[in-house]
């Protein structure tokens, strides 16, 4: 049974017990008013509170998480690519039933995570499926539980398969990364963005923030660079971090006009 400590606020699993959670103490997250509290996977499983949740989110993209959500509450996405199933981002809760359901879908060949808020129990997932975890080296300092399964990469892009590319945009975190699947949406392309490119209630736009809970906007030069990088890719849909947080059409145009709107507001250019 896994007893490594997990922060109840953000879901980060640490290798050893500690009093503080660096992720929560950072200005991009927060320590709850009730104080820092801890749990572990063994306790979460034994509580009977959580059950696996697996639901289709789009063509060849399956949401993987729990009901209810734990900590921040994001869900992972299983991408059913030609090169094999690949897990994007990570949900904190994991039990034997969830592992079996993912195996029944064909298992996974690897894991990549957009930024530290979703590292959570990534090592548990990697061990359960005997696969690597791809993290950008820009966020190495935030790894709570180091493990040989973690593979750090550098630069702007990394092809984790012949049909899947990681792109480091640097939004939200230095290593903030998105996943481009050109075969997604039946060949029209899909962008899996976590909250590096945030899908918002108005699906005609997306958001760019340095700190979401504390409402700190991202720096303009970072947003401009992100838009320039994504201008080289085509995608119809954008899959955010939450259940059904999806831009279904015109994803490329949504990103570009959102960046233009953002820059016009923060730089007072419009």
Helix proportion of residues, in percent? 10-25%
Return residue spans where pLDDT drops below 50 for at least 5 consecutive residues: none
N-to-C order of helices and strands: EHEHEEEEHEHEEEEEHEEEEEHEEH
Q: What value does the average pLDDT take?
A: 97
Query: In what order do the strands lie side by side in the largest sheet?
Result: 3-4-5-6-7-8-9
Protein name: MBL fold metallo-hydrolase
Domain Metallo-beta-lactamase: 73-242
InterPro entries: Metallo-B-lactamas, RibonucZ/Hydroxyglut_hydro
Organism: Amycolatopsis iheyensis
Provide an overview of this structure.
The chain is of the alpha+beta class and 270 residues long. Helices cover 22% and strands 28% of the residues. It has helices at 22-25, 41-47, 96-104, 122-129, 184-187, 220-230, 251-266; strands spanning 6-7, 38-39, 51-58, 61-67, 76-81, 84-88, 111-112, 133-136, 150-153, 157-161, 164-168, 177-181, 190-194, 198-199, 206-207, 209-211, 216-217, 237-240, 246-247. A seven-stranded mixed beta sheet has the order 3-4-5-6-7-8-9, with helices on one face. The protein has a six-stranded mixed beta sheet with strand order 10-11-12-13-18-19, with helices on one face. A hairpin with a 6-residue loop joins strand 14 (198-199) and strand 15. The protein is globular and about 50 Å long. The termini are far apart. InterPro entries: Metallo-B-lactamas, RibonucZ/Hydroxyglut_hydro. This is MBL fold metallo-hydrolase.
């Amino acid at each position: 049974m896994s007893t490594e400590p997990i922060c109840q606020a953000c879901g980060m699993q640490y290798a050893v017990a500690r009093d503080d959670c660096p992720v929560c103490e950072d200005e991009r997250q927060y320590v709850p008013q009730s104080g820092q509290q801890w749990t572990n996977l063994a306790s979460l499983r034994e509580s009977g509170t959580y059950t696996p949740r697996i639901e289709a989110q789009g063509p060849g993209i399956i949401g993987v998480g729990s009901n209810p959500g734990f900590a921040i509450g994001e869900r992972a996405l299983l991408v059913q690519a030609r090169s094999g199933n690949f897990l994007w981002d990570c949900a904190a809760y994991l039990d034997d039933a969830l592992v079996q359901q993912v195996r029944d879908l064909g298992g996974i060949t690897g894991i990549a995570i957009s930024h530290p808020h979703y590292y959570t129990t990534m090592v548990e997932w990697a061990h359960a499926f005997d696969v690597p975890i791809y993290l950008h080296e820009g966020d190495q300092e935030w790894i709570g539980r180091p493990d040989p399964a973690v593979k750090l990469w550098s630069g702007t892009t990394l092809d984790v398969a012949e049909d899947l590319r990681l792109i480091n945009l640097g939004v939200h975190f230095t290593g903030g990364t998105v996943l481009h699947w050109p075969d997604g949406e039946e060949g029209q392309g899909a962008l899996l963005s976590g909250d590096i490119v945030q899908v918002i209630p108005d699906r005609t736009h997306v958001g760019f923030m340095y700190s979401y809970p504390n409402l700190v906007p991202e720096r303009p030069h970072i947003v401009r660079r992100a838009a320039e990088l994504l201008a080289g890719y085509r995608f119809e849909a954008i899959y955010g971090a939450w259940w059904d947080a999806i831009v279904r059409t015109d994803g490329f145009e949504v990103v570009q006009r959102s960046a233009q709107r953002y820059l016009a507001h923060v730089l007072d250019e419009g």
